[in-house]
Amino acid sequence: MSAIRLIRHRDLKPTPWKNGGGETREIAAFPPGAGLEDFVWRISMATVASDGPFSAFPGIDRVLTVVDGDGIDLMVDGISRTLTPNDPPFAFAGDAPAAARLIGSVVTDINVMTRRGRCTARVSVLSGQEALVTSQDEVVILLSRSDGLEVIAEGQQLRLDRFDSLIGGAGTYRLEAGSKAADALVIELKIAD
User: Fold this and answer.
1) Domains in the chain: how many in total?
2) How far apart, in whole angstroms, are the C-alpha atoms of residue 46 and residue 14?
3) pLDDT for the residue numbered 85
4) pLDDT of residue 129
5) pTM of structure
């Protein structure tokens, strides 16, 4: 397992969208310092405040997970799909025309982007008082959707509050939430050889 890095949501700087429809906070990208044109993978959190089109990302695969708010109606390549915090992550091609319509209030989503042919992503949701994640993938990112999630890995015990993230490598991660249910996203990234 590679070194574990804890990323606090409160430390992420918001960047407003050019169209004024929301803002994005980059959680992590590879390689470090990569921009939108040269990342291999990128994980970000967006606050969507109004209806509108998604930016096109040719050659990029995306996985979108709504984590807060009423949800969105997402139209991708002419096919509509409703995404709420209770729905599983949704994968689609970044080159496909896409637009979102808010179902109600402002929505927060997690956007996982990988460069096609160079990296793949698997995103899943974990719930329960206790969970064990074992992964062989090079990069594992755990994002807490609730306060007080304890993660034990590599002899360390770390507390994640809502929207905090932990980044590590292949290994085993034990998640504990005490008397309430754990609620976390698990993002596993496999980089092509």
Assistant:
1) 2
2) 9
3) 93
4) 63
5) 0.92
> 2 lies in a domain?
no
Picking from 190, 167, 169, 176, the residue whose alpha carbon sits closest to that of residue 1 is: 169
Residue 137 token pair: 């993938």
Whether residue 5 lies inside any domain: the answer is: no
Last residue of a domain, one of 53, 85, 117: 117
Tokens of 149: 């999630």
With CA atoms as reference, report the closest residue to 36 among 24, 21, 19: 24
Question: What is the residue-wise DSSP string for the chain?
Answer: -PPPEEE-GGGPPPEE-TTSSEEEEEEEEESTT--TTT-SEEEEEEEE-S-EEPPP-TTEEEEEEEEESS-EEEEETTEEEEE-TTSPPEEEETTS-EEEEESSS-EEEEEEEEETTTEEEEEEEEEESEEEEEE-SSEEEEEESSTTEEEEETTEEEEE-TT-EEEE-SEEEEEE-TTS-EEEEEEEEEE--
We report the CATH number of the domain holding residue 146 as 2.60.120.10
> Do 130 and 176 sit in the same domain of this protein?
yes
56 is in which domain, residue-wise?
11-117
**Residue 126 banded pLDDT, cuts 50, 70, 90:** confident
- Residue 170, number of CB atoms within 10 A of its CB: 14
- What pLDDT does 132 receive? 77
State the Cα–Cα distance between residues 84 and 101, nearest whole angstrom: 12
Shared-domain flag, residues 25 and 108: yes
